[in-house]
Amino acid sequence: MNFNQFKSIYPSAFLTDVSKNDQAFLTFPYQNKWINFDENQLTVSEKKLLYLIFNQDITMQNLETPQSKWYQFLIEDNPSLPIEKGIYRVVQFDITKKDTRFDKKLWLSSFKSFFKDVQEAFFIDDHYGLLIHRYSGFSAAQEETIGILQTLDDDFSTKTSGYIGQYWPLSLDFKQFFKEEQTIFLNQLQKSKQVFSLSDVALSYYASEALSKSPIIQQLKKDLASHPEIKELITAIWLNQGNISLAAKYLYIHRNTLQYRLDRFFEEFGFSLKDRNDLLLCYLLTI
Length: 287
Prior knowledge:
Blueprint: H1 3-9, E1 14-16, E2 25-30, E3 33-38, H2 44-53, H3 59-63, H4 69-74, E4 87-97, H5 104-112, E5 118-123, E6 128-134, H6 142-156, E7 159-164, E8 168-169, H7 173-188, E9 195-197, H8 198-211, H9 215-225, H10 228-239, H11 244-251, H12 255-269, H13 276-286
Helix pairs in contact: 10-11, 10-13, 11-12
């Protein structure tokens, strides 16, 4: 295809003499120049098609880690702030399942397109990365972020988890806050739902050390450990805030089946998972 044909399909496309180092655009070598496409105007399928058209070798690109100012500030030991001021948060993501054709650059550009005021997004290793965006009166809620990742998982045949960080004013303390959020995310990655935030895991994360010192708690944990299926039961009730119908759907069982298991649990252990205090205690026993 010549440039005019591309232009007729993508009116915002343009040519440059050098590669445009701007993550808002997809850029490909084209007839001794570079052709640029606005990513916000491309669907996931269109991006895949453009990569095929230009026969772009993205293997090496995917292995490169962008050395942006945010990367240097958060991951490396560079003390310089990446930008002068503002309020920002970090969304962490971890792709635990992907096929051999997975395109990191395409996935990342698609992920960014769902958020407003994105400052930077990059992979740190083969599966884990960060998205930083600025507070501007709008922020994707947890349910929206779950929907975003589910959409991408469907499109890319992946399985992804995410952590929504708190908004913090940009200062030298920002890196310290991020490091703690990073520790929380990696610690709770296999213990929580697909997308979670501090309020979802604060209790289990910060209480775990104190609980480990209690002989009573340790004995109760030992009793529950002899019934591995009970942890799944307690977790389902906890994550669904005591709603039996939602918990049954979470477990893929009938509501009556779940009710029977709750009755059996009460008979054996003396705790009612319908009671908020009992449920809290039992949840603490599973962490």
